[in-house]
Amino acid sequence: MMPNRHARAALLGDYLPGVAICGALLAGLIWLPSDNRLPMEILLVFAMAQGWNLLSGYAGLLSFGHQVFIGIGAYSLFMSMNAFGLPLPLALGVAGLVTMATAAVMALFLHRMRDAYFSIGIWVMADCVRLLIGQWDWVGSSRGVMLESSKLDLTHFADMVFWLAIGLAVVVQFGVFILLRSRFGLGLMATRDNDVAAASVGIGASRSKVTALILSALICGLGGAVYYLSILYADPSGAFDLSWQIKILFIVIIGGVGTLEGPILGTALYFVLQQAFQDNGEMFLLLQGLTAIVVMVFAPQGIWGVIAQRTGLQIFPTRRRPPGPSLAARRPKPTTEDKAQAARAPAKG
Amino acid sequence: MLEVSAIKKRYGTKTVVDTVSFTVGTSECLGVIGPNGAGKTTLFNMLDGTARMDGGRILLDGQDISDAPQHARARQGLGRAYQVPRTFVGLSVYENVLAGVTHGPGLRGAAAAARTMEILETVGLDAKAALIAGGLPLMDRKRLELAKAMSVGTKVILLDEIAGGLTEGEVHALIEIVARLKQDHTILWIEHIAHALMAVADRIMVLHFGEKLIEGPPAEVMDSAIVHEIYLGIAVDDTADT
Description:
The complex is a heterodimer of chains A (about 350) and B (about 240).
Chain A: H1 5-31, H2 37-56, H3 67-82, H4 88-110, H5 115-135, E1 145-146, H6 157-181, H7 183-193, H8 195-200, H9 205-231, E2 233-234, H10 236-239, H11 242-255, H12 262-276, H13 281-298, H14 303-311, H15 325-330, H16 336-344
Antiparallel strand pairs in A: 1-2
Helix pairs in contact in A: 2-6, 2-9, 2-11, 2-12, 3-4, 3-5, 3-9, 4-9, 6-9, 7-9, 11-12, 12-13
Chain B: E1 2-11, E2 14-24, E3 28-33, H1 40-48, E4 57-60, E5 63-64, H2 70-75, E6 78-81, H3 93-103, H4 109-123, H5 138-152, E7 156-160, H6 168-182, E8 186-190, H7 194-200, E9 203-208, E10 211-216, H8 218-223, H9 225-231, H10 234-241
Parallel strand pairs in B: 3-8, 3-9, 6-7, 7-8
Antiparallel strand pairs in B: 1-2, 1-4, 4-5, 9-10
Helix pairs in contact in B: 3-4, 3-5, 4-5, 6-7
């Protein structure tokens, strides 16, 4: 179906604010800092947070175990370069595939669990994987693994990793946006609200959730791969650390879970706090906890959740609008006969 | 056309639905009545796949759907309105119905939008299309529940006590909607409001402790000695209400 001019204009209107704001934020991250180490970290953490939000905010599965995907992504990148000598682009592809496969295997155990059972289940599994990796000699056991950097072009390394992070963040933000606007996205959100009712209107609820888990894992896997690529070293206690999950959780809950704008806001707030109290780690943790409490008490739907509720503002609009009144007005008032005919028509389906 | 033969449901040692069979054709409405705990809702749960059966067979237009998962039955044109509305609370009223229209009959784009608005107009929710469904009062949620059943129910529609709590005028409007749907649908309707069923149902089936006691023309069933016996007291209250 060809979209008409009106629909195309509406589509442009839906994308324009998001593109403008992301463009401005990226420009700031690219031009303002003298060193792109911090911007890279910000972008990667943001991408992972958005990936977690896809599962927890839109599929309704609150995960406490996403650090496993970050670690698996990092390790599969390292091992496919170290042990199999794959070039970086290919190794990134392998990292993505291995993470998705891990999520698919975990889904076999998790797909019937809901609520707290899912949260605890995935957490336990994540910890099992961390312990296994710590015992496995081929991946360096608890000592961790260094990336053999002989094949990497180290002169432009920092820039390359930075641009990988930009690419990932942009693809994730707009990829999730497009996904949520699709039929799949509508089915996913319906499943989140009521999985039995979702199945009763023809949505493959279980499959939607598993798909969301796998995509969410892919995002965190790639985020982890790029992050550990930048430091050339990964170990089980770092790459599989629960603190990754806590960071992501904080960002999304503060910003607004189940909104696409929330993780952007949350990431910004997290790094502002972190930078402001760079030399005072305890103060940073204290303020982080305090912020979390204040937001959860006064705005449980997150900062963006409140803004959206008060103003109806959407920078990344995922709501489907009913056809406007102009459209309805143009239609002639249906006669009784028309109505009877309309009632008969759907039987063809 | 829905053909149900000898379906059964057990919870532990208790048989909740025991070897119930019936057939409902297109353009036909079967009313289902029975005291609380008779197994009416469990029967619907087995028909739409919310619950598994412990025996028996269900044919939809000749096709065996006994083992089909719930979402597959919906895609084959079976819609269901739950007794307690199961609303997608985070979605708008429009999106609640659109989800069914796009996943069930698989309509897309403008056709899906038009069909969704048509359903919302039928149940009287078109003016509230853009509202978030979680904020709707109960009566509107019941209307939305009917709309969701219509969104996928191109062949069969199961209605579970959708008239409960409506005003007399609203019940009449509902009867009109169901009568219109009946023209080209197979309809099963569980309802305690007797006159609503009498107005639309072609036959009435009585369930009691999971067993089918009687099935026949509405007037005949309502006047039968067996219905008087199990409804003694209950029927009097109902007439007092209406």
